[in-house]
Amino acid sequence: MNGVVQGFVAALNLVLQYVQEYVSILGDPASAVFGAFSEVIGDAVSVRRIAQSMHISESRPEEETRERTREERVLWVSVLAGQLKFNKETNWKSVAEDILSPPMSPAMTTDTQHPRPQQAQDLIATTPSPSPPIDRRISDEIKPSEKFLPTPTVSTDNTTARQSKATELDKAIAVLLVARGKFSMGILIPVILMLAATAAAFYDAYSRLGDRDTSLALAYCVWYSWLLILGVWGNCYAAAMNSDLARRAFSEIVHFGNERAVTVSLRDRYVNSQFWDNWAKKMSGRRESFNSDKTQSDMDNNPLTWKSWLHFCIGQFLGWCCVGVPSGAAAAIAWNTPTIGLGCRAFNVLLYGVLSFAVAYLNVLRSWLVLRDKVKKPEHSEKGYRQASTHYVSHIYWLLTFLNSMVMVLGTIFHLIGVFRTCWCDRLVWTDDTRIELNNRTHESLDHAKRYWLSTAYVSFSIVSLISLVGIVLRHNIAQTMGDWIDRCNRDEQRRREEADRLTQITRLTSGGAQIG
């Protein structure tokens, strides 16, 4: 019986978690859109640095190659774990430096790191005694660079073990890259449904030009178009990586704290990604950062600056514009649908846009207060005031978020069941000299359809399509770099196996020649 109750509670918590996320998206769309923007743009910048490092490191010396490979791994950790909640306990483990940039092993050296022919000749000239005899038939099959491999200066067993850990980390990164849901599959269903609904709305608007019902249906279709932006940039929640998988993959080098792995909501992605990005930039170029005695969470050492919060405010405005433009277009269509003026539908859409703007910046204040309480411990006299202010602001934010989501949900329901068709809704703007349109497809309706309805819808959908296209291009570039990195890992793995086999063969030949001598 207890097991059944626990299972029911777990299922209920899971459902409530998804419901809370969807309420947050509908009630605070600007934060959700900007959260998706910040995540994709941050990933694109990090992946571009990785691609540049991959291109440069192909022809650089061993030490510089190690540093660049180390930076690539740090960036991959921040990109793939960036959806996990960054907390005060997030930290590198003391063994991270050995795993991220281990000393090169002769058996695992790439072709670009072998001695060049001229170096091989120098080794011949400086060798004090000849090497043991080797079978000429087999010796001819071995490259000159393989005959004169330098002797490692560190313990071979220790080096091999550390290199093996690094290889396992690369494999873990590759597994996470492959395990992420395909972008095309993630957006396929919502994009098709949205485009199908849009095509149907435009077809009805053309075939029944001047019809008020088709005009209002077009207005609501335009209103919902911002969901297409969120679907493309957010890559859809179903395509996100499993948080437990990322935590287990990087558990060898990163301490995530004792909290359960939680995927950060879209509304909090910007602040969370800022910590991950700052953490990666600091760690990718400083060896002393891996000292477990000195390394502390960026929440203590590097809190977000005023520039980060300014970018947050600007980003919230851009996110709101992605919602405000479709909302304004929908309100304009509804306003210019006879009877001309402010009706229930136009008021519904305008109210949603205004509340979305207010909630977006209330989220900035809430995020700042919550982070302030986590980073800086207040004095005893200020503790109660700070906790109370954060508590009240958070509750006001969630109340307005819920109300705004209900504005969209209930407004849609009232539109579908015909509540907005009542005369009471038209009386919102009636005056004594108002001309009431009782007929459908009148001359005025046809004129407004050509002048306002279709043109406004076209402009709104063009803006939405352009923003979505930018997201698709960025996602494609990210996926392309991921594929290139996986291919390079496969080539390196094959090369390491071949080099290990050749080194084993050389060792056997050398030991056999020594016994013969």
Protein topology:
Layout: H1 2-27, H2 29-56, H3 62-80, E1 91-92, H4 96-100, H5 117-126, H6 136-139, H7 144-147, H8 156-179, H9 183-207, H10 212-223, H11 226-233, H12 243-249, E2 254-255, H13 269-284, H14 298-301, H15 306-335, H16 344-375, H17 380-417, H18 423-426, H19 443-516
Antiparallel strand pairs: 1-2
Helix pairs in contact: 1-2, 1-17, 2-3, 2-13, 2-15, 2-19, 3-8, 3-13, 8-19, 9-10, 9-19, 10-15, 10-19, 11-19, 15-16, 15-19, 16-17
What do these coordinates show?
The chain has helices at 2-27, 29-56, 62-80, 96-100, 117-126, 136-139, 144-147, 156-179, 183-207, 212-223, 226-233, 243-249, 269-284, 298-301, 306-335, 344-375, 380-417, 423-426, 443-516; strands spanning 91-92, 254-255. By secondary structure, the protein is mainly α. The chain has one domain (25-105, 167-493). A two-stranded antiparallel sheet has the order 1-2. The protein is elongated and about 110 Å long. 35% of the residues are buried. Keywords: Membrane, Transmembrane, Transmembrane helix. Residues 107-133 are annotated as: Disordered. Residues 107-121 have a biased composition (Polar residues). The chain crosses the membrane at residues 183-203, 223-240, 317-337, 349-371, 392-417, 452-474.
